Predict the structure.
Amino acid sequence: MKKIPVCENHEIHKNVVDELRPQMLSQEEYNDLSNLFKMFSDPTRLKILSALFQKELCVCDLVALLHMTQSAVSHQLSVLRQNRIIRYRRSGKNIYYALDDEHIQHIYNAGLAHILEEL
Amino acid sequence: MKKIPVCENHEIHKNVVDELRPQMLSQEEYNDLSNLFKMFSDPTRLKILSALFQKELCVCDLVALLHMTQSAVSHQLSVLRQNRIIRYRRSGKNIYYALDDEHIQHIYNAGLAHILEEL
DNA sequence: TAAACATATGAACAATTATTCATATGTTAG
DNA sequence: CTAACATATGAATAATTGTTCATATGTTTA
């Protein structure tokens, strides 16, 4: 004789959950938010972002700075671009990338504060 | 006749890169930081975190709130635990989870501010 | 116009990840 | 002690992801 192992029948717990529910975001908002944080979840992208915090840079600058292939850097720039984290402008043969939003640095710094405190 | 397509020979660009380099973090710091943000890069984990911002909860509360299997929730709790994002305490048959650090909510809010502004 | 340069992009591949299923562990009630 | 409950965990799997390789696109120079 099997029972579903979920404690929804406990009245106390049910009330707790009912109180929480209205405060939750929508599925779409959680998706958007997780996609945003995904942009910060790779070391290469973090390097690119922290370089762009300092100044606008072209792709070859980033390639030289990161010691990575041009293709790998370009692919990550493409991801950041598509998620509106960075923007670009063309200048002759070069394409210069820059941050699209000052929020980005704020998110980055909030994370950095956390890992620097963990010593 | 092939040439390496990297603009390091351009003196201007080289100076730019040399100025940036000392400001960069170490590889290990970028790894730690990306791992931290990875914790926020999944909708299920974000739901768990935003629920725990409000109050300490046991696993079955989260299962009821998220409408997910106990196993899926438990696995994500395990990930968050191992990364020291949340802590737990046992109380009888239940295990209660709570945030380990108030930085977590700060990072979350910084991200949330960004997506809510994008309307 | 052709060659060189700077960057982008598609396909392929290995690595990582979120969930499910089955089962194990630890706790309490009877 | 045994059954029921609450939670954890290992294995399997499908989906996602970061990099590489090869090649395409767009710009400038000669």
Chain B touches chain A through 60 residues (CB under 8 Å).
